[in-house]
Every structure is written in C-alpha cells, then in structure tokens.
Write a structure and sequence with these properties.
Layout (H helix, E strand, L loop, with lengths): L2 E5 L3 H12 L3 E5 L13 E4 L6 H8 L7 E4 L20 H8 L4 E5 L5 H6 L1 E2 L2 E2 L1 E6 L2 H13 L3 E6 L4 H16 L14
Parallel strand pairs: 1-2, 1-3, 3-4, 4-5, 8-9
Antiparallel strand pairs: 5-8, 6-7
C-alpha cells in the first residue's frame, strides 16, 4: 500500500483520489485553505490544482517534498485567452517544477484525462489510459502500478522532456471540450 497526498479538492483531485483508493492506497487531501500549514503524509504527492497555484505549493513544501514522487497534472493554459500555453515552446511546467524540486522525482500524469473518465474508468468502451512521463524510472513504475491497481491503464510515455507534448495534448483536449467538439467524457484510451 502506498500513501498519497493530493493538493486540491476539486473534480480532478477527487477522481484521482478515487483511483488510488480503489487500488488500496491511503489518500489525504490538502485544500487551498490548508496550504502551508498541513503536513504531507504521502509518498506520492499529486498537484491537482490549477497551474497558477503550483508555485505557492512548491515554495511552501519544498523541504517536505524531498524524496517524494510529485505528480504534476496541470495544463498550463493561458486562462485569459484560452488559446495558448504559458510555458515556452519545447518546455513544460513539469520541467520547471523539477528544477525547483531537484531532490524530488517529478512526473507528468493525468493531464490528458478528464475527471469523468478517471471516475468511470472508461473512455467509450475502453479502459481509461493515463500517460506518465518523467526521468525517474522507479517513480514512474510505482505510479503506474498504483494507477493500474486502481483499475485504469497506464503507459510510460518517456522522459520528462515528453511532458511538453503531454501538456500540448492536454491543452488540445481541453479546447476541443470547451468548444463542444468532444464530450467531457471523451479522451485518451489505448488498445494494446
């Protein structure tokens, strides 16, 4: 059993927490009102918050995050225009977080999934698939095992440099859903 701490209490946080709980893991949540005062209990820490909230969490918890797997689920969308990402081309918010937390294993995951597909475990008739990118093989393997234990599929999408493509894919899915081109129950699944 793994212990998981999730920053956030919204739809994504609860859906991700449900996946981990279904796999037999203990899950605790830290809401916005407790950032800076709550202690991190988990070995896996999920940043299930809008991207503007990440810097405050990283600054407040850098020491506690040492040695932990930190999961960045954000899509760094320019919320004022909703037509671009706010990170430089070829970079990712995940890579920026890893630079700020050199003693942590930062991975990108869940950003290409909608809460509804995480909660249902399905995209259409297929199992929901979570793409995971990061440089620490053990951190990715542990996260993938925890996701699969919760009933979803998971694929190692490669190194941390792949996070930029995952953020672009997540952004595309968001814009399609907001534009009502796909449903919020749509998304990514894999047939092997």
């Amino acid at each position: 059993m793994t212990s998981v701490t999730i920053f956030g209490t919204g739809n994504m946080a609860n859906a991700i927490g449900g996946v981990f709980a279904a796999g037999g893991n203990s899950v605790t949540y830290i809401g916005r009102d407790r950032v800076g005062t709550a202690l991190i209990e988990g070995d896996i820490v999920v940043l299930a918050v809008p991207h503007p909230a990440v810097d405050e969490i990283v600054a407040a918890y850098a020491t506690q995050l040492t040695g932990k797997t930190v999961v960045d689920i954000t899509n760094p969308v320019d919320f004022s225009t909703f037509d671009s990402l706010v990170v430089p081309a070829g970079s990712s918010l995940t890579a920026q977080i890893q630079e700020k937390l050199p003693q942590s294993s930062v991975v990108k995951a869940f950003n290409t999934n909608f809460a509804a597909t995480l909660a249902s475990g399905k995209v259409g008739d297929l199992p929901t698939t979570v793409l995971v990118a990061g440089d620490d093989a053990a951190a990715k393997s542990g996260l993938i095992s925890a996701i699969e234990a919760g009933g979803l599929g998971a694929i190692d999408a490669g190194s941390l440099s792949r996070a930029s493509e995952l953020e672009a894919l997540g952004f595309l899915q968001l814009t399609l859903a907001v534009g009502e081109q796909i449903a919020w129950t749509g998304g990514f699944a894999s047939v092997r």
